[in-house]
Input
Amino acid sequence: MTKKLFEPDFDRHPLNKIETALEPLEKSWVDFLYGVRVNRYIRAERRPSFRFSGYDKLHRILDHYEQQLKDGNRTAIFTALIYCVQENVPLPYWLGDEILDINKKVHQKPSNLHELFGLGSKLPARGERATKARRDVQLRGKLWDAASELIAKSKMSKDSAIKQAREQLDFPYKQRKSREMFDAQERIQSAYIDAGKGTTKHRIK
Output
């Protein structure tokens, strides 16, 4: 079954001359321009079609990724790149420059893209740690989702919610480790929300 995508009301808000000229060339260009002018949307099967975040929020989040890079976190390059793809917005110049720099290094000498994007420590490419790191990222997200839902619905304490979520998920870690994983994911979620609001309490990791 083909996913039905959001379609803008072209009768009320038709494409302008530039958008009409670009439509047969590349729809993503049209989607971006139309989004700036009328409403944000994306005609792509692998992404939610209608966009609820305004460009000011996108800018603030990308601004935080840039700050993360300045603070030495090179994973911000890859994260920001994926974010731009998901949101169908042009790369900020700072991000484009970083991608061009990586491209230059790859062509100058044998290079490891995994390391150039700063993924080596958090998501190693080889060995037992590579599998465990990826599994833990997935488990951390599932635990946070389940425990947060219990906290919201049942007004449980954080520790009680984590304990019940562990039982529901047949979680492979004990309570102390699970609490550490929950707190780590909570910091990530808080950072994302704070960045979107324009506050500086946390930074995206």
About this structure: The longest helix spans residues 128-154.
